[in-house]
Amino acid sequence: MSHRLHRLALVITIAALAAGTAAAAEIHEFNDQEFQIARQTGQRMLVVVRSPWSPTNQELEDTLYRLAEDPSYTDVTVFELDYDRRKDVLRRLHLSHDRMVVAYRGSLERGRVSGLIDEMQLRRLMDATR
User: Fold this and answer.
1) What is the pLDDT at residue 92?
2) Rounded to an integer, what distance in angstroms lies between the CA atom of residue 130 and that of residue 110?
3) pTM of structure
4) Between 114 and which of 24, 59, 100, 102 could a Cys-Cys bridge form, CB atoms 3.0 to 4.6 Å apart?
């Protein structure tokens, strides 16, 4: 009997560790192929246009990383798009500003904000992807 309890405890521990590692939204550099796959498979996602040199973009990024840890958003994929280097994607997605965030559920755009973006606006966008 104690052998079974030991195995059960081990299984519960492994499951808890696995759940802990998946407790954050994925944030990575924009990649055309990954973005198209996410659109085709109906994933929840944000495209964040940023300029690495901008201090207000750093605030946006800090807020985004903080929200990515929220368990409500573990299935949201965040694509960071460099405003200075990816003009081709900016034109294709009709993105005209640095400091812009666009929410998608699959191929459907669910909302966008630009300018000085606060935590509540980001939460609303992430919630709109449901």
Assistant:
1) 93
2) 9
3) 0.78
4) 100
d(CA 77, CA 47): 9
Q: So what CATH class is 24-128?
A: alpha beta
What pLDDT shows up at residue 104? Answer: 96
Task: Give pLDDT tens digits for 30-76.
Answer: 999 999 999 999 999 999 998 888 888 888 888 888 988 999 898 99
CB 83 within 8 A of CB 76: no
Q: Using alpha carbons, select from 66, 91, 90 the residue that is nearest to residue 80.
A: 90
